[in-house]
Amino acid sequence: MTEQELKRKANALRHEIEAKNRGLSELYAQLKTHHQDTRSLRRLRDSLNEDVKEHSKKLKEYKEKRDKLNKAVAELNMSKRQFIVEVRKLNRGIKDSKGMRDMLNKSVRSTEQLLEHVLEDKLNVLLEEDISLADEQRLYDVVLNLAQRLESARKASQVHKKIVEDFKNLKEVSSRIDSVGSQLSDLSVIADEYHKKVVETYDYIKKKNLEASEAHRKLTEKYKDADPIRAHIGAVKEEIKKIQDELAPISDALEDIRAQREEKRKLELTNGARERLKKSKRVSLDDLKIILEHGPLDAVDAPP
User: Fold this and answer.
1) What is the DSSP string of the chain?
2) 10 Å Cβ neighbour count for 145?
3) How far from the centroid of its chain's Cα atoms is residue 137's Cα?
4) Distance CA 7, CA 251 (A)
5) Domain ranges within the chain, ordered by starting residue
6) Which residue, 143, 146, 139, is CA-closest to 109?
7) 39, 51, 139, 229: which has the fewest C-beta neighbours closer than 10 Å?
8) pLDDT in tens, 77-98
9) pLDDT digits (tens, 9 = 90+) for 58-68
10) Residues 6+ apart with CB under 8 A from 108
């Protein structure tokens, strides 16, 4: 292969390498874009996962507080139901006691104090005064009737005291029911607020999990999309290496030709300088430099 053919072949190979290097630069630019996208997606995914982690902690706290409040509400409801049962029991007792008291009072038709006073007077007459047998019999019946009425009056008084005590207990229990009802209302509102937070936080976590999953999916796709580019880069590098391997012996051959030409040129210059020195016995500094670079000075007198 002539020198011109070698040069044309070398230039063609160099142009091919340059073209492939330009293509390689474009591939690296695409890969860089992919790397930027993957970094961005990875930051987004990690940020979303961290956000989910933080809100999961909040969700746990909200659930614990809500459950404690719901437990307290359930306990208060149980207490309220027990108080209501007690109120109903007291109401039935009061109603029954009122009926008994009214019945006793109806049979008494007087006050306990008045009956005691009249009974005492009648007993004094019966026990201390001298009366006829008929009057004594009649008075005995009166005393017996008064004693029975007094007993009924005393029972009515006891029943009335029980009614008053039951009313007092009823008022106290009703007050407790009102207090429990107020606590229930307050705790229920707070429990509802925490339940709302639980639902909102759960929905938020669900949404962010979906976003994180989507970011991870896109990230995975980006990794997969970059694989063909990396493979293409590897293939182009291999092609460049093959072209460089093909170019190397051609470059060496051209370098040998250039070296031979240079050696021939230097030899011609040296011979010319020697001829001028032989003819004139004088030599310029440039000719002397050429002669010294190519061989020793005593070679000038040697036969050509």
Assistant:
1) --HHHHHHHHHHHHHHHHHHHHHHHHHHHHHHHHHHHHHHHHHHHHHHHHHHHHHHHHHHHHHHHHHHHHHHHHHHHHHHHHHHHHHHHHHHHHHHHHHHHHHHHHHH-S-HHHHHHHHHHHHHHHHHS---HHHHHHHHHHHHHHHHHHHHHHHHHHHHHHHHHHHHHHHHHHHHHHHHHHHHHHHHHHHHHHHHHHHHHHHHHHHHHHHHHHHHHHHHHHHHHHHHHHHHHHHHHHHHHHHHHHHHHHHHHHHHHHHHHHHHHHHHHHHHHHHHHHHHS---HHHHHHHHHHS-GGGGGS--
2) 12
3) 99
4) 9
5) 13-228
6) 146
7) 39
8) 888 888 788 888 878 887 877 7
9) 999 999 999 99
10) 115, 149, 152, 153, 156
pTM of the entire predicted model: 0.57
Residues making up the chain, counted from first to last: 304
